[in-house]
Amino acid sequence: MLDLDCYKVTKVITQLKNRIKQDEVPALGAQLTYYLILSFFPFLIFLITILSYTTFSSEDFIVRLSTILPKQSFDIVYDVIKEVVDNGSTSLLSFSIIGTLWSASNGVAAMIKGLNKSYNQNENRSFFKLRGYGILITIALSLGIILAFTLLVFGEVLGNYIFNALGLSYYFKIFWNIVRLIFPIFLLILVFILFYKFAPNKKLKIKDVFPGAIFSTFSWITISLVFSYYVNNFSNYTKVYGSIGGIIILLIWLYISSIIVLIGGELNATLSYVDD
Fold first, then answer.
1. What are phi and psi of 202, to 5 degrees?
2. What is the DSSP string of 29-68?
3. Is residue 163 part of a domain?
4. Rg of the chain over CA atoms, in angstroms?
5. Highest mean pLDDT among 8-12, 46-50, 196-200, 239-243
6. Phi, psi at residue 124, to the nearest 5°?
């Protein structure tokens, strides 16, 4: 039984490696990164504009964001955020929504293309249906990111507010701190499950896409943390790229993230063929 399992694992790894090369995952990842960088800053503008209508200040957002991004990339992002805050306008909200949906839906379309390739499926859905899928997936991903980001970034603030307003016990605060760290992980898994299930032009069950969702979630979290730690402590891209070092770091992080998402789809496809 053990030999059989080892054989199956070896077969999956071998086929996955061949599929990544055959389906040109690195090239598709580069294409996806282009669309993601176009949607990254409109999304930040959209988020900042939304925050202006809440009790959360932009300063809170900026301080918390500095703990997630590598410092050199954060410096670039900070300049954009500061300019938006200093020249805030409600008209930015509509433009940022349009920019985010247009750019990110193109990125989703690129991911759909990659997933169809992993399942050897031709895209026969109409342009409007495909673009509709792209926009709906973009909105779902955005809502998931906003909710997860809110819990991670502002979870402590929300917990303290609830704790003080309702006079709850100290144990609730401990429970809340655990929930706000674990829930975003489950939320991210759910987002990946929905994406891997509905994006390809192929009927799939949840159990068919669950492995890729697990892989993408934990791989993305781990690699992002490791990459951020490495950049902040052992590397200085500004010495090589000068003032655009932060943009280069951001592009590399988005490229790695794109590759992970595409490999998750390839893993699902590989497992489906091995099981057959």
1. -160, 135
2. HHHHHHHHHHHHHHHHHHHHHHHTTSS--HHHHHHHHTTT
3. yes
4. 20
5. 196-200
6. -110, 5
Domain count, the chain: 1
242, containing H or E segment: none
The secondary structure of 138-198, three-state, reads HHHHHHHHHHHHHHHHHHHHHHHHHHHHHCCCHHHHHHHHHHHHHHHHHHHHHHHHHHHHH
* pLDDT above 70: residue 100: no
Neighbouring CB atoms inside 10 A of 175's CB total 13
Could you give the CA distance from residue 248 to residue 243 in angstroms, rounded to a whole number?
A: 10
Residue 265 sits in which domain range?
A: 26-275
132 part of a folded domain: yes
Token output for 140: 């779902």
**Does position 179 have pLDDT exceeding 60, yes or no?**
yes
